Amino acid sequence: MVERDPNEWMWERAAELLERADKAQRRFFHLQQDARRACWEPPIDVFESAHEIAILIALPGVRAEDIEITLERASLVIAARRTLPEAFSAAEVRRLEIPQGRFERRIPLAPGSYEILERRVVDGCLCLRLGKVP
Q: What CATH number corresponds to the domain at position 100?
C-alpha cells in the first residue's frame, strides 16, 4: 500500500471544509437588494416540553429594545436590524462574515394557542419561553 503525502490530503481536507463552511454561510446569509425586506435569518435552537416551547435565537450585536416579536396564527416572528458599530464606519472592510441589516425569522408553531412567558437577551442570544394555552 502506497502512503499518501500528508500535505496532499491535508490540503484536500482543508478545501473540503472551506467549501462546506462557504455553503453554510450562503444559507445563513441571504442577501437581497431591497433594504425593506429581511436579508438574513439568525440561527435558532428550539426545545419543547408538555407545557411550553423554549427558543434560543443567536443575535449578537442586536439591542434587546430593537427586537420585534410577534405571535401569528401558525408562527412566531422575530425581526430587527443589526448595523455595524459606529466605531467601524470609517475603517476599510477586510472581511465581513457577520450579517448586517434587517433580519426576520419565522418559526412555525404546532397548531394551538401560545403566550410569551419570558423574553430576555443573555450573552447575545434572545431567550424566549412560550406557554401552551390549554
A: 2.60.40.790
